Amino acid sequence: MSWHFTTDHHAFRDTVRPYLAADPARHTAMLTMLEMPEQLVGPCGWWVEAGGGEVGGAVLVAPAGVPLVAGAGEEAARALAVELPGVGEVTAVRGESEAVEVFARATGRAWAVTRRMRLFRLGELTPPEPAPKGAARTAGPADVPRALAWMREYARDIGEDPDADYRANVEGRIGGGRLSFWVAEDGEPLAMASMSPVVAGQARVSTVYTPPAHRGRGYGGAVTSVVSRAALDAGAEQVLLFTDLANPTSNALYQRLGYRPVLDHAAVAFG
Asked: Which terminus of the chain has a lower count of CB atoms within 10 Å, N or C?
C-alpha cells in the first residue's frame, strides 16, 4: 500500500473524486472542499492505492496546514504516518475518528483529541412547531460584514481561529445564495446558517450560529430547517451536518429536526 502526492488541485480532485463520490455522506467534508477552492490555500493532497491500483483513501491539507483524512483504513493510516511529507511539522489532523487516532498513535508523538464530532444525515425534515417569531431571509452582498463577524464568533465558539481570513468563504456562500438569516419582524438578523453546494448528491448544512443575546428562543433551529429545505430543493439526495459532541443542546436540536447519526469524526492536536 503506497501513498501518492500531488500539489495539483485538479489532478488530485480528478483522481479521488470517483472514490469519494461512491460514498458521498462519509466523504462530505472533502467533497465539499474540493468544489470550493476559496477554502483552500496552496492545495495539496495524497491518495493511497489499495488492491488493484484503486484509490483506497485520501488526505487533503486544509488552509491551516491541518490534514483532513477521508476513508483511510488502519493500514493506510499507519502508512501515512510514515510517508506524509513534513509529518513531524503537522500540528493537528482531523477526519474519521478511527483513522485519525491510528495515524496519531503511529507518529510516535504526544497527541490529544481536542474535539469529537458526529456526522448526521437528514431523514424526514420536521420544522419546529410553532416556529419562532420572524422569518427567513437569504443573505445579500450588504450582509457580508455581519456574516463575517458572526463567522469569526462561530469559529471562536468551536475552537478554531477567529482571526483567520474568512472573507472569501463568506462572500462565496453569499454570492451562491447559500447563506440565510432568521430575522425579526423589524428585519434584524437573529441567527444564520449556510449550506454547501450540492456535490455527488449531497449537501452539508454548516455555520449555524446564534449570537448569545438571541439564544434559547428557537432561531437557530428555524434557520437550520430553512437551509435544510433549501438543500433538498437544490437537488440534494442527502443533507448532512456535523455536530460537536460536547454540545448536547445542538445534538438534541438537530435530531428533533429529523437528523440521524452516521459516523464520528475527531480532531487531534500534537504536543
From this structure: C
Please enumerate in sequence order all residues whose Cβ is within 8 A of that of 114, keeping only pairs 6 or more positions apart, or say none.
Answer: 92, 159, 267, 268, 269
Cell of 40: 483552500
pLDDT digits (tens, 9 = 90+) for 231-262: 999 999 999 999 999 999 999 999 999 999 99
Assigned C-alpha cell, 193: 446558517
- Residue 109, all three cell numbers: 508523538
**Does residue 68 contact residue 29 with C-beta atoms inside 8 Å?**
yes
Scanning the structure block, which residue is given the C-alpha cell 483511510? 72
Tell me which residue of 131, 121, 89 sits closest to 261, measured CA to CA.
121
pTM across the whole model? 0.92
Helix (H, G, I), strand (E, B) or coil at 203: strand
Cell of 134: 420572524
Residues 6+ apart with CB under 8 A from 248: none
The pLDDT-based confidence of 206 (bands split at 50, 70, 90) is: very high
| 92 membership: H or E segment, kind and range | strand 92-96
At residue 39, the pLDDT reads: 56
Backbone angles phi, psi at 49, to 5 degrees: -95, 125
State pLDDT tens for residues 49-61. 766 778 989 998 8
